[in-house]
Amino acid sequence: MVFAIEEERLNRRKHAVDDFPHKSINACLNYCDISLSDVDKIVLPYVPSLESKIWLPELKRRLFSSKSTPERLRWIERYLEHRAQAHILPTSKVKSELRQIGDSLPPIDNQPHHRCHAASAFHPSGFDEALVFTVDGKGEHDSTVVWHGDEQGLERLRTYTFPNSLGHFYGAVTEYLGYRAFNGEGKIMGLAPYGELNEKIETSLRSAIETGVDYDVTSITEHGIEDGVAQLERLLGRPRNTSRGEFTDWQKDLARVTQHLLEEIVTGIIKQYVNETGIRTVTLSGGVALNCKMNKEIRELDAVNDVFVQPVSHDAGLALGAGFLESSPETVYQITDVYYGQAHNTEVIKSILETNKIDYTRPTQLTQRVAEEIANGQLVGWFQGRTELGPRALGNRSILADPRTKASRDRVNRFVKHREEWRPFAPSILADAAESYFENPAPSPFMIDTFQVRPERASEIEAVLHPADGTTRPQTVSKQQNPKYYQLISDFADITGVPVLLNTSFNDHGEPIVNTPTEALKDFFGMGLDVLVLDEYLVTKS
């Protein structure tokens, strides 16, 4: 893999839902200095015809439902349109969009959604053999699949079909608590530790779902997210949350119970298949694999020796898996970083600053100067090298702050990120210091796992602790992974004795992470940042 970027970074629409990736395709072609006619094959990470296993039962249900005739007719029209697209013209829309990029189109192939997730997790994991666990809302007719991966490829061991979907179950609770499904699940995960394992809530949910290896959540998920919210209202005896104020203790308890049930189901499945196969290495992908609290529970299972969570586990990572399926697993390099996006030339950045008459300096000891600014309480926008692939800023498009005080955390939340003050931040830490700060440490280069902070170290990094449970979601930084960022953290450690920085993504609330110097400048002047570093150049608001 030589280049990868998400469409949202280029068209500036968060998640870029339903947008054809014109800009990202052009960016890939431009980076490689090729045209569309030079491409040997395009692989799409879905097979439309497989969705018939969902649509046919739903068609029968709709035909005999109590809904009004016009509503049933509208749904049947949608069904017939989908079937035509799936069987008669499965790639026609893609071809039409691609012709806006180039006239000569390469062959187009399709691979199943969950198989692409599985390849994205196993092929670059560095493991010779692993249990591969893919879990999301829905991919064609699959929602959770257990795989066996080895040098021969991928073999399905167990499939849980839609609508028995853990992603939709968690999404329904997310929507019930006032956030958007498929967008706010991370907030519910962050809210969960503030709650208790409320017995009444747990009893109500368990009356409707089954946990364990044969889990079944279809009573909540069978008819979509909105219907799932209605089912939760009936089960729990309370209306959905429509307030933007503080959460009640009961709502926090619901988040906690939901997280607990998810962890119980997933760890139960993994333990079962570790015991059946004797394979003690696990890889994960799919949107639910972004749940870093769940990933901690998996990593800490006695039955599991090692875990790799694909850092682009959501659907943006499907493109990786679709490409990897064209190669045998042993030929795919282990993924060690996610710096695959666009970079911006130093002289181009200088020209942008001068054209906009923005004062700047070019310190000879840049990382030392920036470390001093952070140690003095300044909030820094840090823009370097190639943009990261995936949902996390990992030291190239980051906002950085002093990790030592709660005041630092509160200032970033209130004046920079403009988000709920209860939400925790994550740290970047020198990889060789992780053992002295975390219990049961392991490499965590992608900020997709959580660890318990050692009690004796907690007071040193209050800004990056979860206030309710003393955990944190770190990025462990090695010199090989990101030399400049490693040096910055080292310089901060020399000044403060703490080899850690608060690291959050360089974007305002509701925006994609910045991609270009111009976007970084816009956010710098529009947010409560004090210092901006663009490659070698330093800008201050003073």
Automatic annotation (TrEMBL):
Domain Carbamoyltransferase: 2-322
Keyword flag Transferase: yes
Keyword check for Transferase: yes
A Pfam family: Carbam_trans_N
GO molecular function per UniProt: transferase activity
Family per record: Belongs to the NodU/CmcH family.
Residue ranges annotated for the Carbamoyltransferase C-terminal domain, each copy included: 371-541
Protein name stated in the entry: Carbamoyltransferase
Keywords: Transferase
